[in-house]
Design brief:
297 residues; Uracil-DNA Glycosylase, subunit E; six-stranded mixed beta sheet; 43% helix; elongated; disordered N terminus; binds uracil
Length: 297
């Protein structure tokens, strides 16, 4: 193929081309059609020239992240639950937001307690209390609590709010619970009486007898391992004794297989703060039995 390469071959090609064009001209052809565009050089040019980055779209027009290509290796990282809200604020979620989970259905204990609660709300066994109460105060807390606090009867604040121990005595009880490294949500709080005795007088024996059924049923449903009686009315009613708190505290008692601790009522402690150290001793005894680490001191 030596004749097709080198200056001679080029010269020959030019001669042939010129002769061809002259021949075409002689036969009347004035203009030749353009040969088709060569493909490869164009494709290569496009391939090697870097495309300028597109102008960023205004924020409102950006496609949602789900429409943007994702690098295969960069799996989306879910924000931890606590940050979920912040994550949602900074970028819309790739998938539609989850519908918030409904609150957990009340368990059998809550349902059983609600049955008693409704009976209590309708109760008129003690005519005077039923007439004078704003509402009954059933009890509050964790139906699965290991520890129940049993008080005496609602006061004015509790009668108004419908919850046990929400007044000044309640604030001290909150501190006692916190000192035990527990939260109010960990325990269940109830009273012997569900109605406020007028003027906060001491409950009458008949009133206690009328109401006994209700707190006994509450305790049967909750099945606490431990009961802490706050004050003489709670302790003497639960344990069916007439002994004073000073003799009952500092040791464990039994109520239907549950361990009972007796201590001073928070209202009494508010009036007699020097007795708080005894209550703290009682709480330390209780914590030890419950397997809760006792702070030093
Ligand atoms: N005192 C109680 O015995 N119970 C309450 O709920 C409030 C004060």
């Amino acid at each position: 193929m030596a004749e097709h390469s080198g200056p001679d071959a080029l010269q020959r090609s030019r001669t042939i081309l010129r002769q061809t064009l002259e021949s075409l001209q002689r036969s009347g052809v004035q203009q030749l059609a353009r040969p088709p565009e060569p493909m490869m050089p164009v494709v290569q040019e496009v391939a090697i020239v870097a495309e300028p980055p597109p102008e960023p779209l205004p924020r409102a027009e950006r496609p949602p992240p789900s429409a943007r290509p994702r690098p295969a290796a960069a799996a989306p990282v879910r924000p931890p639950a606590a940050d979920a809200d912040a994550g949602a604020r900074s970028a819309p979620p790739a998938t539609p937001p989850a519908v918030p989970a409904p609150p957990p259905a009340p368990g059998p204990r809550s349902a059983a307690l609600d049955v008693v609660r409704q009976e209590v709300a309708r109760c008129r066994r003690c005519a005077e209390l039923a007439e004078k109460r704003t509402q009954t105060v059933f009890g509050a807390g964790n139906p699965h609590a290991r520890l129940c606090f049993l008080g005496e009867a609602p006061g004015a604040d509790e009668d108004r709010r419908g919850e046990p121990f929400v007044g000044a005595a309640g604030q001290l009880l909150d501190k006692i619970i916190a000192a035990c490294t527990l939260r109010r949500d960990d325990v269940y709080i109830l009273n012997v009486l569900k109605c406020r005795p007028p003027g906060n007088r001491t409950p009458l024996p008949d009133e206690v007898a009328n109401c006994r059924e209700f707190f006994e049923r509450q305790l049967e449903i909750i099945q606490p391992e431990f009961i802490c009686c706050l004050g003489a009315v709670a302790a003497q009613t639960l344990l069916r004794t007439t002994r004073p708190v000073g003799q009952l505290r500092g040791k464990f008692h039994d109520y239907r297989g549950r361990q009972v601790v007796v201590t001073y009522h928070p209202s009494y402690l508010l009036r007699t703060p020097e007795m708080k150290r005894h209550t703290w001793d009682d709480m330390k005894m209780l914590m030890q039995a419950m397997g809760i680490p006792v702070p030093n001191g």
